[in-house]
Amino acid sequence: MSTTESVGIWLNHLNFGDQATFLYKNTKIPLWNRQASEISKLSNPRLNRISMLRTLSHARSRLRSETTSLPLARNRLRSKTPSSSPLSSPYSSKRHAPKTSEVEDYSRAKDSVLLYPKDPSSAPKLFLVQPRLTPPKFLQAKLNEALCLANSLEEQRYGYFESDFFDKELPSHVVVQNPVRRSSKPRADTYFGPGTVDNIKCHLNAEDSKEEVDAVFVNAMLTAIQQRNLERIWAKPVLDRVGLIIEIFNAHAHTKEAKLQAELAALMYKKSRLVRVRGTDGRHSFGQFGEAEVVSARGRAASGTGGGFVGGAGETELQLQRRRIADRRLRLLSQIKETQRTRLLQRAGRKKRVGNKDESSATIAVVGYTNAGKSTLTSALTKTALYCNERLFATLDPTLKSCHLPSGKSVLLSDTVGFISDLPIQLVEAFQSTLEEVVEADILMHVVDSTAPNIEEHRSTVFHVLNQIGVSEEKLQNMIEVWNKIDYEVEEEVEDVKFLGEGEGEGEGEGEEEEEAELNDGLKAEETVDAFVDEGEIKNQDDDSDGWLLCEDENVSESELWKVPEVAKLDAVQNKGPHVRVSALTGVGLKELLYLINEKVEVLVEKRLKPQTIVESSELHRRKWRPPRDDDEDARLLPLDQR
Ligand SMILES: Nc1nc2c(ncn2[C@@H]2O[C@H](COP(=O)(O)OP(=O)(O)OP(=O)(O)O)[C@@H](O)[C@H]2O)c(=O)[nH]1
Ligand SMILES: [Mg+2]
Question: Where is the segment annotated Disordered (predicted)?
Fold first, then answer.
């Protein structure tokens, strides 16, 4: 079908805030047309990707009555989704109507949900692809986590989630061959081997016949090229692990600081996706959807798409994108710094008041893997009601609450964002401002979900992140480890094994043969030119997709930057065990925990007092300079009869 025969979208994608005009059967549909205006929301640069999908499905259902070529139209629309500015990141945050005080720059005001209302009542339907892992217990843990991640992508409506997490249907999923398992090198073009890719396509078609799938979630880290190729083959948007987590951050962010940090994370991710790829029509384009062609500014002006001199003569689209991302990043960083300064002042004030009779004697940061029960435990200890939810990353902002200890003293407990495995350092860095609360805390309390089958992985992930953000070794050693959820009965995994049966069966049944075939295919593929990506383009990937961190170290490639570093074998990880086992829900073990905290705080206060006196005497000593004394001089000071 030719371009003019299907519903297309003509995007003035080069200017932020431009509106869209539609081309349907060679006819431009005016913007005030109801259907067109529905889809024109796609031109909102701040519209996130999932809401874009939702918008598409609304648009599709409206248009269905008028046209029969909509499935094709949808694909075309998706592949033409605008994202000409960094603000147009499909991952950018802006879900909730901002408070007046939060509307601080033109873009935020312009892109508020009031202009482009979304429908938070319907969460996107994801199809999960889980690469096979061994042992099965580990696979089960990872699959459960991925299913929870997929179901956590939901926005709040009126400040709460409409549906109960446990009432939600589990997303459809499939367990497939893991390309990293044997060959230790996934395919550069599609990550999975061709057999697996086809297999997933069949599953998707089957799912689609039952109910529409909005996007495919691959629980792995994909490169921009792999993501793009898979999107083309499956004709669905593809989210990798990092992409989904960023979406969740954006969906759950409420406060100004969380929104800024989530957007920064999205921006960094987006920048790593600026890959120049040859489109099906043979022309070079870039961006996640290949939405922008590489042309000069002069070319843009000539084609009437605007931009003109703004980018400077000869500036390519790629440079323009980079510049916009860099500008936006700087603006975000300065806004984050502003919020950081307030936090810093508050912290300094607290530190000054330490020792006052009514003030808290220490700050304790409650850290741990996401969903470990940090907020529930903090609520129980401080007798408050913090927001707790089964959805992953329910908490994104640190909250300080006062907790009374058996000694009569009080401490401040700081509940904060949870950690998760396989996250690149850049994402952790985006949340640096929030995580500063952890670095600056006097004591850390590590909440571990004792029911997690991969508890050791959870623990080492937390230690690793703490190490990355600069928590001192001393604090790590002094950390209180609390094993939570001891009330939870770990059921025999019979049901779960059955549940996995489908995926596993598929893996096992075809397993070895398919794996061999894929290995061979993979080897062949290395020699042949891929259908979508040629070797040069893969090489170019590093050139064109430099994450902003590349500016700091040009020698580091993008793939290395986004590589998850291996979990460090910290001594602390091995040495630690549970100090106390609790159930935040039932209250078992809380008293014991309070006594333990009390003990640690006493030691800390004592330590604080001790070095002060030492410093004072040494200060005195330093202030008076004395000439170095030798033995003769010592002798001279002795009384004459003793010399
Ligand atoms: N059975 C049981 N469930 C618990 C316990 N503590 C917490 N939970 C449940 O675990 C889920 C997650 O609890 P949260 O307190 O939100 O976990 P979190 O660590 O703060 O999670 P994030 O903020 O998302 O990182 C909730 O459904 C809690 O009800 C416990 O001691 N026993
Ligand atoms: Mg929480």
Answer: 62-105, 500-520, 617-643
pTM above 0.90, yes or no: no
Hey, whose CA ends up nearest to atom 23 of ligand 1? 395
Name the token pair of 369. 């893997």
383 occurs within a structural domain: yes
User: What domain range is 483 assigned to?
Assistant: 354-489+560-643
Q: Distance (Å, rounded) from C-alpha 393 to C-alpha 298?
A: 45
Surrounding ion ligand 2 within 5 Å at CB are 374-375, 394-395
Q: Which residue has the tokens 């950018």?
A: 92
CATH number (domain holding residue 461):
3.40.50.300
Given the cut 0.90, state whether the ipTM is greater than it: yes
| C-alpha distance from residue 378 to each of 365, 415, 455, 476, 538 (Å) | 10, 7, 21, 20, 48
Ligand 1 centroid–CA 12 distance in Å is: 46
pLDDT in tens, 129-156: 999 988 888 899 999 999 999 988 877 7
373 lines ligand 1 (CB under 6 A): yes
In our burial notation (b when 16+ CB lie closer than 10 A, e otherwise), range 181-200 reads eeeeebbbbbbbbbbbbebb
**E-assigned strand segments in 209-258:** 215-218, 238-240
Residue 536 lies in a domain: no
pLDDT of 265-322, one tens digit each? 888 888 777 755 555 555 555 444 444 444 444 444 444 444 444 545 566 777 777 7
